[in-house]
## 1
Amino acid sequence: MMGYHPLVKRLLDGELSLAELPPELRAEGEEALRLLGAVDRAPVALSPLLDERVMAAVRSHAASPAHRAWRWLNTPREVELRLRLRPWTVWAGALAAAAGLALLLGRPAPAPERGLATQVRVGLRDSVFVRFVLYAPGARRVAVAGTFNQWDRSAAPLVPAGTSGVWTTTLALPVGQHQYAFVVDGARWVVDPAAPAVDDGFGRRNSIVAVTAQGAHTL
Amino acid sequence: MRTIGIAVSLVLGTTLAGGLGAQDVQVRLDRRVSPEVQRAVRGIAADAAAHGLPVDPLVQKAIEGGAKGVPGDRVIAAVRALAGRLAEAKEAVSEAGVAAPSGDVVEGGADALNAGISKGQVGELVRVSRPPQDPALTLRVAATLAALGVPATQAIQLVQGMISAGRSPSDLLGLPGQVQAGVARGATPAQAAAGLARAAGGPPPGRAPDWVPPGQRKPRNPHKP
């Protein structure tokens, strides 16, 4: 789009004549008129077939079964429903609905702890939470490794309980007997002093914990 | 056709008894133990599976050795020794009348043998471990008692006494903890176990004094016509 002077634009719109333009804009006005005159203003004649083609397409769309079905489903209708009820049935229905609502609202909500525990039992069937505790003052990191985590030294780290030197963690273990040991500072294997220990076959000892549905025993 | 059937049964039996296929063993050992240990353990596991022994304890032992930084030859020796104990335990359990023992029972038997309980005592304990008692559990309890220092014969007698007194599996599981508590109070493991054996002679907590274990006849009441 050319940036014509506003007075030239008015000339093109037929609001001004060329003589009414200031002398310095007349050349620009003449050029604009020349360019505009070059544009072909002949009327466009559309083919009579076009009209027919468009109307045929509209008719076929309106006649398609899918479209008709959709229109049938989507068109709002007036539906008249007449019920013949005895008054006592209305009252009985209302009472039943009220009783159902009261039962629904009156059901005691589970305590958060219990709900959580239940959820865990469902999700981890036959698993029981077992707490591991080790007193290891001066340790930089402590983990528990055993048959329940493929003896992975980094799978179950303990966290320090304050600055007392007590390290603790809680794991969900499957029911059964498990052997384990604590790993202090990533390298030192330590038996649980609070649990029985057995020979590990390598000249060291493993602690034993037995997990039953009732809880864990340091078996 | 019969040969195929037997072969299928053997393959299935081997796979099920082992619980792990050769591929699984390889996957579990990969990057956990050296290639040399992997090869040796694969061989031991295949042999164990062929004899209907559980393979999982062998793989676990190898992984444990790798995690603890135990030299490869010692890991292999430990796995081989465990395979031997599993075979001995299976034999003991089978001789006690359990034709197809589960891997858990065999493993429990191996634990008991490792704790110094004899093969005959393993069989004896399996024989008396009738439902609701699980032989795998009773064997492990006896093994742990022995590991705590209770003489093997006394450990077996204590567990047997608890079973015949009709105590629950949970009561049995509490025995090692009670022995430990006794030791903490100054008793020897044998003394602590003897005290528990005496207590086991009475009725379980919450039972009437004339209670008898299930399957046993109540003594006749002389005052009853």
## 2
Amino acid sequence: MRAKCILAGALMLMASGAVAQEPKRGGTLVMGQSVPTSIFNNAIASGTGVMVPGAQLFASPLMHDENWNPKPYLAESWEISPDALSVTLHLRKDALFHDGKPITSEDVAFSILTIRDNHPFNTMLRPVDGVDTPDAHTAVIRLKSPHPAILYAMGPPLMPILPKHVYGDGKPIKQHPNNARDVVGSGPFKLVDVKPGDQFVLERFDKFFLPGKPYLDRIIVKTYPDSQTSILEFEAGRLHIQPFFNRVLELERAKGNAQLGVTNKGYEAVGGINWLLFNNKKKPFDDIRVRQAIAYAIDKNFIVKALHKGLSKAATGPIHSGFPQYSPDVSTYPYDLKKAEELLEAAGLKKGADGIRLKVTCDYYPGDEDGQKRLAEYMKPALKRVGIDVEVRAPADFAAWAKRMAEKDFDISMDAAFAWGDPVIGVNRTYLSSNIRPLVFTNNAQYANPKVDELLAAAEREPDTAKRKAIYVEFQKIVTADVPLYWLTELPYHTIYSKKVQNVPTTIWGTASPMMDVWLSE
Amino acid sequence: MSAHGTSPPAPQALSPTREAIAMFVRRRAAIAGLVLLALIVGVSLIGPVVYDADPFDIAAAPLTPPGTSEAWLGSDQQGRDVLTGLVYGGRATLAVGATAAGIAVLIGVTIGALAGFFGGIVDEMLMRVAEFFQVLPALLFAMVLATLFSPSLIVIALAIGVVSWPPTARLTRAEFLKLRELDFVAAERVIGASTGRILWKVILPNALPPLIVSATFAIGTAILFEASLSFLGLGDPNRMSWGLMIGSGRSYMLTCWWAVTFPGLMIFLTVLAISLIGDGLNDALNPKLRERR
């Protein structure tokens, strides 16, 4: 009965929201985040803690809608040459930086080269040879080879346009004093106050180039490392929106609150997947039968339905189902203990007197309780059923886990990565044999398949969308058959918001794109 | 130096012991504590033998509330049965408590005895070491140790033991300082007993009563310590313990009270039982109280 009332209330609220209300100017939005922001310059850093504020502070050449279509932003229009080796951007002529100076093609050229040379996603702009500036409002990006991913690399979280007269003053960009405070941006909001580790305040930039935008006067971003605190703040009405929320229990609780909305829209381009990593170079995981057996022994349905309460989605392969390149035509490993045991027997792993055939350690990346720690803990009872004794190795901190991954000092480990708009940016790195490096978030399975290397190299430069998708379809088929790692779920990211918040960002980038259409109703 | 108020080593050792037992038995609270502890230890030792189950196994749907046939006391967020956890987790919790207390008493008594008996520079140096450990915030230090070495039961027991010996050392030192001047010790010296014999065979037995009481309390403290470390996420994730149950259920407390309440209750009852026994022992072994009756 009560549930019905809440449902009815929610429907009414939704209906009232659906009636095209006139957006109201003004108001202060309070936004929560789980990781503190230490720098605001997303030209040189990745992670949600910098990409979300970065997209508010800096404009990018393009934006994207909910269906992956590029849209004009700082570039009014753009063309790709027939040979796909150059991209011409026609910039808006009225755009200003926060210090009142005009945004010109010089700034765009400077920003693109800065990102190419300093951003952690080193494949993102690697083919960029240079940027020509025939006039103040035209920038031509020259490419060494066709680079279709650039349409997404020019999006808000990835390509902030920085003022050359501030960030190009010769000081090293990674240590630049204006990265952490006194940011001079080009986006709809400017940074006015920073309390490091606690909160920062963004204020409407009155001379923003899109007339009437943004609607909000102010965004206060507060850090809540603990998701329970976030929920209590939401319930007290002190918090309006929190993106990248992935705690199952608190999401459930928010869903039961008529004042709050919960959506998983806005994370398609983020494309986060978590998986079980096998050390493919270490016995017995070099044997494909052992990897397959472990895959068969894992009940993804239990993970999604019981552990994640239906808030996540089972992953089928290396590419997130929200991506245009996604293919469901892959090898799958439905839960089958008998098959798992047969494969292990065939691989020569016989059960001992205690019913144990193999002892392994399982690490996990700390910081994502539901996506990582609980799944690592799930491996213990799950694999015990096929005679594998799992010892969960709790990492002391991120650095401790990262070191184990870098040194390949592990048997199996939980792991995750974001794709960020295009497989070239965030997927290829996990499977390319050239990316087996002593570093976290590289090809730590040490997977090497020449055919896969070849396909990924071809996909990187294939300008034709359909042909490119075909390459990725084949890639997904091969990799899922090889199981160098086993994909468990798409990360259950959600945005929790107060029903007062209108136009909650739901494009493929979600809140990692400018929140200039967001407004507050009373 | 006078010896009034302290009895020389008893010629018939049985009589005071018997008297102490009689004294202890008269304390109802102490007996209740003893029965309770015996029950808890009994279940922890025999339970896993009789009741064969894997405490990490998925026994029911996650977050099943208590009162269903597959999980009498409910299941936690991973679907693990809380009752199985309680039965299996007792061993680890009690073992860590006892081991840590043992380590603390061993270090404490050794250092305290040497410092109290030899005095002078030895005393100065050993007490400075003790002070060093005493000024460190114990929980923080134990956290550092548990973090440095990946948390296993042994590391946790060691970490707790290493941070909690100074009070025992101070108590032992005080006892030794007092006893070494007494006539019966002097008598041993005169007949040429070795230092070792005087330390461990003559003084230590007479210093034991307060040490036994303090060791009892140390077990209770160590169990609480283990729970605190686990609560902070520094427990051994591969050995079921009551502390681990509380630690992993902590973030689900608002919706899943049973996963933390029952192990919490077990820790509470165990520490209560140990404290009651400690109080009873204190009364029974205190000669001044004994004389009053």
